[in-house]
Target: ABC transporter permease
Amino acid sequence: MLTNYIKIAWRNLIRNKAFSAINILGLALGMGCSLLIFLWIQDELSIDRYHANGPYLYNVMQRQFYDGQVQTGRFTPGILADELKRQFPEVVYAAGYTGWAANVTFAAGEKINKETGHWAGADWFKMLSIPLLAGTPATALNSPNSLAISRKVAEFYFGNPVAALGKSIRIDNKNDYQVTAVFENLPETSSDSYDFLLNWYDCLTRNPWMKEWGNNGPHTRIMLRSDNNGGQVNIAAFETKLKPFLRKYNKDIGKSFDAQLFLQAYPDGYLYSNFKNGQQDGGRIEYVRLFAIVAVFLLLIACINFMNLATARSVKRAREVGVRKVIGAVRSILAGQFIGEALLFTVLALGIALFLVFLALPSFNSLTGKHISLQTIQPSFWVGLVVMTLLTGLLAGSYPALFLSSLEPVRVLKGTLKFGAGARFFRQGLVVFQFVLSMLLIAGTIIVYRQVNYVQTTNLGYERENLIYVPVEGELTSQSNYKTFKDELLRQPGILAVSSMQEAPTNIGSSTGGVTWPGKDPNVNIEITQTAAGYDLMKTLKVKLTGRDFSPEFGTDTTNYLINEATAKRIGYKNPVGQPITMWGKPGKIIGVMQDFHFQSLHIPIAPLIIRLSTEPGSQNFLIRTQPGQTTQALASIESLWKQMNPKFPFAYRFADDEYQKLYKSETVVGSLANYFAFLAIFISCLGLFGLSAFTAEQRTKEIGVRKVLGASVSSIIGLLSKDFLKLVLLAIAIASPLAWYAMNEWLQGFAYKVALSWWVFALAGVLAIGIALLTISFQSIKAALMNPVKSLRSE
Model:
């Protein structure tokens, strides 16, 4: 019997080629998109989950209470790690880690190259599951001149990891470091990214400010002790002891602000990175949840499409069901047959879906920045496919199976088959559901596109186009060479202005509470973002300024300051220029007020900013403004001059525009993916609408014939068949619009600066949905309206 059913299913598939192709294509697209999304979700959930000590690893976090606000992040004092190990028996290992990447010049023999890495504490390799190809975890970072490098770096400079051990590498043409360990290249599932690590005490020596308890910036990672039963210490109890820890060391805490330590599980740091009012408030996990819902929606739309198409063909199968019931077939057997056919369609669709995923993965990886592959050698991959196939086949085939198996053989064989209101409403409900989901995706896509476009084109308050960053390093860190290089640059064609800045203007993150002024409330500690810069900064950035910029003509500018409008407003000065202000105990004057400009992500409101003059160019970046249309020529000039004055350092540069775009990589990726998935959702939904319109036309064939005989025009027939479907689409628009408004309003709350949720967005989404529906329906409607009534009435 089973063989017979398989043969029947295959014959039906072959006999109705168009019906089968549409069904299989719809399921294949739905399953393929869902599979892609699930692979992406699996990759996201695997980040930082590969460490053997994962359950015991934590990032130490800090809440700082400033002026009625709470700042939360991984920033901690640089000497915190060692003190935690001394003070708490619960802490087995602890290591400091620079949250900022160092891009330095390595030189070994004749080979010179730029490498990116960090500084880390001696316990780093003891905590984390990073395989060492040479060296040991105990000695990898245990001395000030220790250097751990990746396999890639070892092979570039020395040929292989073993040959690299014990060798010397000169960094920034200043200090020699000994290779004490070679580690395997970090896996794609690591949120950390580095090709070398230097000893933590080397970092403290380079940055004396990190030795003070009142200064924060580095990260601290710890590993807690496990009990004898394999469990771990009581986290809540440990955090209670950890919370007031800084008060013992930081004399400022308790006067005008407070600082509290707490823990975040290290594997959670990647997905749960956002905090609001000191509490965890999402992060990338929101996108994981969003796309999980999209994957389920796409699969549901594909299954609904199958249901509608199968129902549209039910009249063709009704007599078959009647005959089978007459000769003794029971309902369960018939239902099993139709579900089996659905599973056959699903298996065929799965094969096509896997092929489509294979073709799409390179482009998908390029778009998302991932390295996802089909894990065909993993049993879990095949188990997942089997589960998805069974669920999809059962869901898609359930309604057609139950519906067809319920037909009464007497009515079917007499030719009086009619479908009740319940069945009609159910099918119409499926169409409404499909278009609600499609409307949500269309409206969401439009709003995401508008927000991403707003982010990319908004006026930041300075001109990021034609602005180049070049690190100040090597011979150029001396004042005389810095000035010579700058003067020579200004003589080159295509270069308009040159300045320098400690941090890139696209992402200034350092802040201080050490700014005071006459009349400031001593009981209120105000956090102000700060950075250092050279002369001609405003001219180079093209920021509007009231007052004047730093100038070599004023020797006192070393103690003078530039502030932005937000700082002036917070201070309360009506005419700030010339007013006194003190930073870190150095009194000076405000010489200029900058128009507020965005120096951080648009997710964050513009904060108070103060800029001090730095005459020490080391650890800064040249900001070079080029003439529009002459950037290529200017870069060639800069590189030529660089090689003359700084030959031992490779020339490296970054465009301000590119650095800005990196701040919104996640939003850009989400926008692109939303475009593709919305298009596919609409396409699959239209297949379902096509099925329902075909079913309706088939059911009303004789009615249409009678109307035409009585003189009905083609246009009136088309209108008759189309209006019912348009009612369904309009109902879907009415349901989806408030849902889309709520969902996108929630998403936009993550931006301090955002587009408005205008009514026309939802109207446009509705018009698009109606237009697409009309195009889909029109084919069947016109076909039915043009049919010869003689053919439809001849059997009467």
